[in-house]
Every structure is written in C-alpha cells, then in structure tokens.
C-alpha cells in the first residue's frame, strides 16, 4: 500500500512539474505581447497572460491549434473574419480565427476596451488584478463560478504581476523604438546628429489612461522615497564607486527573472529555493563549477535572452564581458558573437558592446 501511495505521489509531482513548465513556456513566449498590449490598451499584462493560460490550456487547446484563438472569443455579430466551430456552452459555436497569436492578443484587448459593460474595469488601478479578475466574471466574460479565483491563482503562482509593473515602467520611461531596420539603411537613408536617435512616430502620441497614470505617479513617489532614504543612510567613502542597489527577492532584467545574491551563500540552497537544478543555475549564469558563491552576484533563475533591451552597452571601469552579460541579461555566447569576441576576451572602459547582431543593429553606437 505504501508503495502504491508513493507511486501516485510521484505521478502527481511529475504532472505538477510538467504543468508548471507549460505555464512558464507560455509566459516566456507571450509576455512581450501582453506588456505591449497593456501599454496600448490598458488591459493589465497579468490579466492577459492569466486569461491566455486558462482559456488556451497553456496554448495547447484545439481552438488555439486551429485558429490562434487564445481567449475563446466568439464570433459575435460584428465579426467578419474567418470562423471556426467548436462545442462550448452549446454545440457548434462560432469562434474567431486569427492569422497569428499577436492578432488574438490585440483583439482580446480591443474586445474588452470597446464594450461598455467592461468600461468600469479600466477605472481600476492596473495593478489591481483582484478587482480585474472579479470584474471580468461580474461583466459576464466567463460562466465558470470560480473564474476569478483561478485567474488569481495563476497570477500568484507565476508572479505575473511583474509584467504589469514592467509595462508601467516602460510607459514612464519608454524604450527607444528604431525606425531603421538595419545599419546599412541607417547609413543610406538617415542623417542623424551626434548622440540623437530617431523614435517611431506612431509610439510618441500614446497617452496612458488615468488609472495607469496614477499608478506611475505612485511608483515614482515610492522610488523617490527610496532614493532619498538611500542617500541619507548610505555613507560612501571618497574615491570609491557606489555599488548598484538591487531589490530583494526576484526581479527582472531584460524580461528574465533574476536575484541578487551575496558572497558566501550556498548555490545549491539557492537552486532548491527557486526550484531549479544546480547545474541549470550555473549554466544560466555562465559560472564555473562552485558550491559557495565567490562574490556578490546577479544570478538568473531562468535562461537569459539572446538579445538585449537596448542596442549597445558602454563598458565601465572594472566590468568584464561576463559582467556585461549579467547586467544586460544577455547570454554570454550571444554577446561574444555579436562583438566578434571570445567569451574570455578582455574589454576596456569605454568599449561599445553590441547587444544585437551587428548586421541588424537598429542604431550605431556614438563615436
């Protein structure tokens, strides 16, 4: 009997882990679209991702496979695009078909934004996912009685709130959006003054909604208090360089989860804490084999991105190629490849390191 219980316990653990991996894969695939849609429409990225996971069964539902419909949006009278038929509340119901997942995410945002009975949701604070989850049920988005609770569980299990906060941060400090697709086109078609970069005109007119503006104002005030506290309580000796301050716990760099760990901590204990293997923790951070952390470090708990959020990085005093890889959240092998360097190459203060393939870098580093 004990063996049978152990067997079923192991089966359950395997199933839970497989489901978790499906969720993480879905999030990594679609988080950027959800962030962009929050900036464009005001629908919280956390809600979009949670609904996508729930409605699409981690992107594996028949509706997704046949029509790229991640949110179960039905045809309605105004839909003039392609259609597919599935059994849902009734047999053979009509669902919308999209050419790409991006179209599905965009139509989901527009679906909520343009219908009067969802209008009250956009008056909520965009970080109030509890209010949004319950409001969606109240407005009739889903018939499932436990729909709000299921959405909130997904948001909490996968820390989806971080993507709503990321969207707010980008609204406050929008990233540069290139209008030139290649360096060659930049040279041929555009004459830019030194240290000036062109912005995509279509993105400069967008104005955040009132709740989003208030949320940005609140976050800005919090950061101001934190900065003032750091100035008052931190004594820096003359001639020394202040070490960058990172938040406690999990945060993101270049849309990838990371922590800041102190020298002397056990890497195995960190790996266990964040539910990854020690070998993966070492691999994600391009570290040599070690048991105890040799110095204070940024440690990524998922695989870094191949490309950086910006176009290039200017090396500062004391930085190595590995340091830049960690600070920018870019894989070391990719960083070395873009700059035609070996992974052990020495870099100097002032060096300009590309964070994208050089042939497709959107702008040139200033001379």
UniProtKB/TrEMBL annotation:
<keyword id="KW-0929">Antimicrobial</keyword>
<feature type="signal peptide">
    <location>
        <begin position="1"/>
        <end position="18"/>
    </location>
</feature>
<keyword id="KW-0732">Signal</keyword>
<dbReference type="Pfam" id="PF01832">
    <property type="entry name" value="Glucosaminidase"/>
</dbReference>
<dbReference type="InterPro" id="IPR051056">
    <property type="entry name" value="Glycosyl_Hydrolase_73"/>
</dbReference>
<protein>
    <recommendedName>
        <fullName>Peptidoglycan hydrolase</fullName>
    </recommendedName>
</protein>
<dbReference type="InterPro" id="IPR002901">
    <property type="entry name" value="MGlyc_endo_b_GlcNAc-like_dom"/>
</dbReference>
<keyword id="KW-0081">Bacteriolytic enzyme</keyword>
<dbReference type="Pfam" id="PF01476">
    <property type="entry name" value="LysM"/>
</dbReference>
<dbReference type="InterPro" id="IPR036779">
    <property type="entry name" value="LysM_dom_sf"/>
</dbReference>
<feature type="domain" description="LysM">
    <location>
        <begin position="311"/>
        <end position="355"/>
    </location>
</feature>
<dbReference type="InterPro" id="IPR018392">
    <property type="entry name" value="LysM"/>
</dbReference>
<keyword id="KW-0378">Hydrolase</keyword>
